[in-house]
Design a protein that fits this description.
Pectate Lyase C-like; mainly beta; 28-stranded parallel sheet; 3 helices; binds 2-acetamido-2-deoxy-beta-D-glucopyranose; 2 domains; secreted; cell wall biogenesis/degradation; elongated; 394 residues; 28 strands
């Protein structure tokens, strides 16, 4: 009996040892949290302690509730030795105004690079405020990405409020496996380039249950990205959910296996958009948008394979091929005075296997009318109540 008992006890000890948790409150590393003193050094020290805990340790950095931490541009770098790292943001993190940035050309404000198993969560009270007003000006925006994740595996981000980024709010680049959920991303409709989430060169991502209202795309999916599932996003105002633009400056880019479902677009400039530059190569394929609701969106459904905003556009010899795109169960209203569904594809590489099924997007006002327009677009349309779609080629 005794031997058996001791055996069990030993197993227990080993189990606890493997699951050691350590917490690192930024205050104990010297952070002040009064919104005026730069707390970057304290955050950097907390990161080092959490990151190099050792392979048995699950580390958590705590950014406490009720305090405001001013951070200059900061890099949280891996690889870490700890088994996992969590960053619990309960308080507020703010950026200095543009005038106080030493390097105004820095590309990121809060940057996580090369960290695996990172979990950043806000538990509903965490707030990141880029205070981007001083960067916005008119039109072009040279500000940094507010929150950037690059070269990571198994990322989780949830429960955060994220406002007024200097430029785009979140970027995910070169990551495998990420779940992003329960975010509220807000910036004025007039703020330039304040995308919600930008994705590039990444695979196996899930983005769900979030609210995004900004001056640009809610979510933008760029080259080298595959297997992205997006659901339950309330988007708008803003520019909608975009794939692309792909193939700029003749580049070869590939995007595939994207599913977007159960999303609402309210007063957005676009809804669901695929945008590729004339002259590029590669493909965007196996993409579906289903159960989507539009409320007064301007261009609910758009494929623009001839994107070329700055120069005279011609139907160039090459294009990023677009195929296997499904639109199923799209409803609501559009304020477009031209076309609520538009497929502008190239002669060189026509769009193929486009499927429209169960579509009813009505004009938002009685005095406007809109229709479907297709150029070099092949596929089938079923049950399209409004607009009637008879422009797809077989
Ligand atoms: C299309 O993409 C979905 C999800 O992103 C994936 O599950 C499916 O296997 C893909 N289909 C093909 C034919 O590649
Ligand atoms: C998702 O679907 C549910 C059930 O139909 C609906 O109540 C909810 O509003 C939808 N979410 C969005 C963002 O459209
Ligand atoms: C349609 O009517 C609304 C008011 O009901 C008005 O503001 C708008 O200018 C009209 N649009 C056109 C194209 O006539």
């Amino acid at each position: 009996m005794l031997t058996i008992f001791m055996g069990l006890a030993n197993v227990n000890v080993a189990h606890q040892y493997l699951n050691q948790q350590t917490t690192h409150n930024v205050i104990t590393f010297g952070a002040v949290g009064n919104g005026r003193i730069d707390d970057s050094k304290a955050f950097q020290s907390a990161w080092k302690a959490a990151c190099y805990g050792g392979s048995n340790i699950a580390s958590t950095i705590i950014i406490p509730f009720g305090k405001t931490f001013l951070l200059s541009p900061i890099l949280f770098e891996g690889p870490c030795t700890s088994r996992s790292i969590a960053v619990e943001i309960l308080g507020t993190i703010i950026a200095p105004p543009k005038s106080a940035w030493r390097d105004k050309g820095v590309g990121q404000w809060l940057r996580f690079h090369g960290v695996n198993g990172l979990n950043v969560y806000g538990s509903g009270s965490g707030h990141i405020d880029g205070r981007g007003q001083s960067w916005w000006g008119n039109g072009e925006n040279s500000g940094p990405t507010a929150l950037s994740f690059s070269s990571c595996n198994n990322l989780q981000v949830s429960g955060l409020k994220h406002t007024n980024s200097q430029r785009n709010h979140i970027s995910i680049n070169n990551c495998k496996g990420a779940t992003i959920s329960k975010l509220t991303i807000l910036a004025p409709q007039s703020s330039p380039n304040t995308d919600g989430i930008d994705i590039s060169a990444s695979t196996n991502l899930r983005i769900q249950h979030s609210i995004m209202a900004t001056g640009d795309d809610c979510i933008a999916i760029n080259g080298g990205t595959s297997n992205v599932r997006i659901n339950d996003i309330a988007c708008g105002p803003g520019h909608g959910i975009s794939i692309g633009s792909l193939g700029k400056n003749g580049r070869h880019e590939e995007v595939e296996d994207i599913q977007v479902w159960n999303c609402t677009f309210r007063e957005t400039q676009n809804g669901v958009r695929i945008k590729t530059w004339a002259g590029g190569s590669g493909f965007a394929k196996n993409i579906s948008f289903s159960n989507i609701n539009f409320i007064k969106s301007d261009n609910p459904v758009i494929i623009d394979q001839l994107y070329c905003p700055h120069t005279e556009c011609s139907d160039k010899a090459s294009a990023v091929k677009i195929s296997d795109v499904k639109y199923i169960g799209l409803r609501g209203t559009s304020v477009s005075k031209k076309s609520s569904i538009e497929f502008r594809c190239s002669k060189a590489a026509p769009c193929s296997n486009i499927v429209l099924d169960d579509i009813d997007i009505k004009p938002a006002l009685p005095n406007i009318s809109n229709s479907a327009q297709c150029i070099h677009a092949h596929g089938i349309a079923r049950a399209c109540v409004h607009p009637v779609v008879n422009c797809l080629q077989n």
